[in-house]
Amino acid sequence: MANSPSPWQRPLQRFYWHSVLALTAFFVLGTLLLVLLVRGKLSVLDARLALEVGGPVGLLVAGLEVYVYPQLFARVRLVARLGLGMLLYLAGFWLMLFLIRRIFGHAVDNNLLAALDAEGFQSWRSLAIRPEGTAFVRLLTGYGILSLFTSLLYQLSNKIGQPALLRLFLGRYHHPVAEQRIFLFVDVKGSTSLAEQLGNERYSQFIRDFFFDMGAPIVAHRGEIYQYVGDEVVVTWEWQPGIAQARCVRCFFAMQQAIDRRRDYYLRTYGAVPAFKAGLHGGTVMATQVGAIKTELVFHGDVLNTTARIEAQCNALNSRLLLSAALYEALPQPAGFQFRAMGAFPLRGKAGTMALYSAETR
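Request: output the structure for the sequence above.
Response:
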């Protein structure tokens, strides 16, 4: 079973491809913008440059950012990382020159380089045949700027998530906004003893592998990773997507299946398999961007505190997954899951009691 293909690889690969296509589109639009800024207008030939040159080169740069660099950066030291990264980006630049020669080799009347006052180059054909002088430097500079901003966009997207990044660009969180959200707090059990057993470095690698394996199930169930806190990952959904098909519940058990499939790897590498528990709750929270020196998207409200308290009850109630009664009543009760009323319990720091339900697969 450990070697069988994961059922979440397809949505995860779809997520990566969406990232590649979005970055490629950004690179093409950036190419158009740079040409427009230089010339003050766009010709048909310049549009061809953006589509037929910027497209393939943007696809290469996006592929490097999404597929190559994450693996490369995890395995080599900083100096080698920078050197290899520069070589790969230079390969992208020479691909750009090659495409210019192939596409514009027979074009005669394009005067973009004349507009740049580029040492007598009068066409893209000239640049392709003799890639030198001011035109060459400006083309390299433009490529470098586009590559840098493409890389920054992807890193920012990884930092806060694609949906949240889009909302930030649209200015949604410049002021506090009320949102209906579901939160899933997932915490590794026995983390203190594991840290003592493995030591700091191996325990850090253990948690890193655990978080990595959580990614595919979360993407497959349309969740957003809100934050990592120590050995805990917090996942969130907007209310309707999280409730639909009980995705917020299915996500937890998909996480468990993902770890089960990697059981042999964890035993072989660390001598232990991650065991984890979780709490689920939802309601109204305030979403906003905070900070001056370092900005971050945060959610405020009693919902998060309550979810953390629900997760803390898992050990006492001997349950892998606990959810609030309010969330349970909103779920569609899908087949394949068994919910059990656990009773009403006081939660630390909260007045009164809260009814909780446990969830298990049938």
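Confidence is low (pLDDT under 50) at residues 107-129.
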